[in-house]
Design a protein that fits this description.
By secondary structure, the chain is α/β, with parallel strands linked by helices. Helices cover 41% and strands 21% of the residues. The protein folds into two domains: 118 residues, 3-Layer(aba) Sandwich (Rossmann fold); 95 residues, Arc Repressor Mutant, subunit A, CATH 1.10.10.10. The chain has a five-stranded parallel β-sheet with strand order 2-1-3-4-5, sandwiched between helices. It is elongated and about 65 Å long. The structure holds calcium ion (CA). Calcium ion binds next to loops.
Length: 225
């Protein structure tokens, strides 16, 4: 599971857009429209991350942030329309882990969310599986059945991305963004090259293919046809 996120935002339109976008990425999403209901929700169902709007009716985002901090460990990403240094310092004092200034790009928000969740996750313990493929995110060890597979850094990140989205077609743009971390360059064949490396390693003793090409679109991790 990608993780659970509590969105605290009184503007329904923004909350709705955020919820849909996060759900599409595989996150479990809860919504709260004000501070007290956010605190109640976080207590009942502790989220992995809180996206918190600064401007809320009644109890403001800073106060909610302080109380969330007293209540649990989830990182807080604060949304604010104010982009001034004193406000940022105030927010940091209240315990926010990161900021995003409105209006923001959804891609930017997703990148911050991923980074915060990555930081918050304790090392070890999380095992990703698909068929006979296993990847341990703590030790970064990978196995096909009982056979250990040595991966380079980028190969590991690419395989991890597929394992986080089994049976979903990942476009080349998404793969490029997630693994290489910058905008798609167009003509580069780096993804093809790395998929080829991964296939060679995953299939080196005659195992079935798990990473399939979706012509003209990208790649998908699924069972052999
Ligand atoms: Ca608001």
């Amino acid at each position: 599971m990608a993780g659970s996120i509590l969105i605290v935002e009184d503007e329904e339109r923004i909350a709705g857009v955020l919820r849909r976008a996060l759900q599409l990425e595989g996150y479990e999403v809860a919504l709260a429209g004000d501070g007290p209901s956010a605190l109640a929700s976080a207590k009942q169902n502790p989220p992995d991350l809180v996206i918190l709007d600064w401007m809320l009716p009644g109890m403001d985002g800073l106060e909610v942030c302080r109380r969330l901090r007293d209540q649990g460990e989830a990182p807080v990403l604060m949304l604010t329309a104010r982009d001034t240094v004193p406000d940022r310092v105030q927010g940091l004092d209240a315990g926010a882990d990161d900021y995003l200034v409105k209006p923001f790009e959804m891609e930017e928000l997703m990148a911050r969310v991923r980074a915060l969740l990555r930081r918050a996750r304790p090392e070890g313990g999380e095992l990703l599986r698909f068929q006979d493929l296993r990847l341990d995110r703590g030790t970064r060890q990978t196995f096909r059945g009982e056979r250990p597979i040595e991966l380079t850094g980028k190969e590991y990140e690419l395989l991890e991305l597929f394992l986080l989205h089994p049976r979903q077609v990942l476009t080349r743009e998404v793969i490029y963004d997630r693994v290489w971390g910058y905008d798609f360059g167009g003509e580069s064949n780096i993804i093809e090259v790395y998929v080829r490396y991964l296939r060679q390693k995953l299939e080196s003793t005659g195992e079935s293919r798990l990473i399939h090409t979706v012509r003209g679109v990208g790649y998908v991790l699924r069972e052999a046809a």
